[in-house]
Design goal:
There is one protein chain. Helices cover 40% and strands 25% of the residues. The chain is α/β, with parallel strands linked by helices. Strand 14, helix 7 and strand 15 form a beta-alpha-beta unit. Bound molecules: ligand C2E and calcium ion.
């Protein structure tokens, strides 16, 4: 079963990592393609602007234009000086009057688009398989200066290593509907094969035209932007999913071993009680004790509760641990309790203990058996853990109250219940948390006020008070002044083992 879960986790993690890595890699690749599309569209704008400037620099054409040597030279110079113009000519009524060089053209169709008051852009479709030719024309009276612009090849600007993997179209359209009669022109370059794996469109908006630059690539094109090959994705996913699966195994072994250890410890009575005296503030006499759990391991090591109680509580193990500890406590009474003082022993319970009759039956049986001797048991429940069903809890508590077992509210003022717990649960005593006792004599106006408020609330409500964590005489004196009856803390004693506790209480 465990092996099956392990394989399942490995498989799921592998698939998730595979998908995740591919997704991230694709995302990064797409960002790069977008960046390149923007770069290319800027180049297109540069081609057009630069060539338009060259044409505008040429002198206006007069009525009697002749293809003189000077005029021919002017056109040749324009081609020579410009980066993007490869041919210039002067046209009248679509007839070439003068050209920078003689080029034969078999023009099939021309689509023109006015891009400024004096400028026209045209795409010339040739009959043969040669790419479309982009023309820019400047009107000068009845004549036109015309420039053929070099085809914009993306390979000049961005690295394109694949063949027939890239397609791009440039669409020139009107900026608004008023100019709509002007024809829409579209031209593109490069042969293309395969699926359109990626496309990105950049729009350039000038005063009179909209140029849309669409860059489309197939998988080969996208691949060159991806940093990982499929093999690498598989290897990476395998490594990462193995790490996850190994971590799961490690966690499982730790988890199950702690759980197994605790179960073993319950069986072998390793959870033992330590007792911390609770004294009467007025005369310093011990009136009871809080029963605090310790884990005495087989090798003699003594483990404090903060190292295992939170885990035990979260795993629902604390209930059985409490019974195991109480068994040891009763054995302590049996062996060591000689004196006749009627002490109370306050045990820490969790909400879970109130959900069944088991604790009640256990304590009732102890009382009936006489094993408790002259002692009384008292319950402590912390305010830090919420009680989900207060009505159900109260029903159970009433059974305890009926046999003389009271309930103290631990960590009062620190948790969920607030003082509504006091009424709803029928609490007899508030245990004031050490955090409030620590404020005595310290300039902490807020918490000091809270301490006084808890004390005065208790008095008004007829509740007893136990001050927890009393460490100094100053704190003790303050509590005396406030008529707090009971206290517990290192000032009197730390929690101690049974032998020591019953020794001092002979
Ligand atoms: P808690 O119920 O608030 O118990 C009081 C803790 O304060 C004890 O720590 C005690 O040793 C400590 N303490 C008492 N006086 C002083 C003092 O003057 N100064 C200082 N610094 N500390 C003082 P401990 O024994 O380590 O227990 C810690 C917590 O573990 C307990 O806090 C309680 O929440 C939990 N715990 C202990 N035994 C049990 C148990 O049997 N069942 C459950 N559910 N929880 C337990
Ligand atoms: Ca307590």
């Amino acid at each position: 079963m465990e092996r099956l879960t392990y394989c399942g986790i490995l498989l799921i993690a592998f698939v998730l990592f595979g998908l995740g890595i591919t997704f991230v890699d694709n995302y990064v690749a797409k960002q790069l393609v977008q960046r390149d599309a923007e770069l290319l569209s800027n180049k297109l704008a540069m081609y057009i602007d630069d060539s338009a400037n060259e044409l505008r620099n040429l002198p206006d054409i007069t009525e009697d234009y002749q293809c003189t040597a000077d005029n021919f030279q002017l056109l040749s110079d324009t081609v020579f000086n410009s980066t993007f113009i490869r041919w210039t000519a002067v046209l009248k009524d679509l007839t070439v009057l003068c050209a920078s060089q003689k080029v034969d053209r078999h023009v099939e169709s021309v689509v023109q688009h006015q891009i400024a008051s004096d400028l026209t852009m045209a795409v010339v479709n040739h009959s043969e398989s040669a790419p479309h030719e982009l023309f820019l024309a400047r009107q000068s009276g009845e004549y036109q200066y015309v420039a053929s612009i070099v085809p914009m090849n993306p390979r000049y600007f961005v690295p394109v290593k694949c063949q027939n993997c890239l397609e791009y179209t440039i669409t020139i359209d009107s900026v608004n509907d008023l100019l709509a009669p002007m024809p829409f022109i579209e031209f593109g370059f490069e042969e293309f094969e395969g699926n359109h794996a990626i496309e990105h469109v950049v729009t350039l908006r000038s005063e009179r035209y909209l140029a849309r630059f669409a860059l489309t690539g197939n998988n080969d094109f996208l691949d060159q932007y991806r940093s990982l090959t499929y093999i690498m994705v598989v290897i990476l996913s395998l490594i990462l999913s193995s790490l996850v699966a190994l971590y799961y195994r490690y966690w499982l072994s730790r988890y199950s071993s702690t759980r197994a250890q605790i179960k073993h410890a319950i069986k072998h009575g390793e959870f033992i009680p330590y007792y911390q005296p609770i004294v009467n503030v007025a005369d310093g006499k011990v009136v009871g004790a809080e029963v605090l759990m310790r884990w005495l391991k087989g090798n003699g090591e003594l483990i404090p509760p903060n190292q295992f109680i939170p885990y035990a509580e979260s795993q629902g193990l604390i209930v059985d641990m409490t019974y195991s500890m109480l068994d040891v406590m009763v054995a302590d009474f049996e062996k060591l309790a000689q004196q006749k003082t009627p002490l109370f022993f306050s045990i820490n319970i969790v909400p879970e203990h109130l959900k069944s009759d088991r604790l009640f039956d256990y304590i009732k049986a102890l009382q009936d058996s006489g094993k408790l001797k002259q002692y009384r048991i008292s319950l402590e429940i912390t305010e830090r853990q919420p009680i989900t069903d207060l009505v159900e809890a109260r029903k159970m508590l009433d059974k305890f109250y009926a046999i003389g077992i009271d309930l103290k509210l631990d960590d009062a003022g620190m948790g969920y219940g607030g003082f509504s717990y006091v009424q709803k649960l029928g609490i007899s005593t508030l245990k004031i948390d050490k955090a409030f006792i620590d404020t005595i004599g310290v300039k902490d106006i807020f918490n000091e006020k809270t301490l006084d408020a808890i004390i005065s609330f208790s008095k008004k409500s007829g509740l007893s008070v136990i001050a927890e964590g009393v460490e100094t005489d100053e704190q003790l004196n303050y509590l005396k002044e406030q008529n707090v009856e009971l206290a517990q803390g290192y000032l009197f004693s730390k929690p101690i083992a049974a032998a020591a506790f019953f020794q001092i209480n002979r």
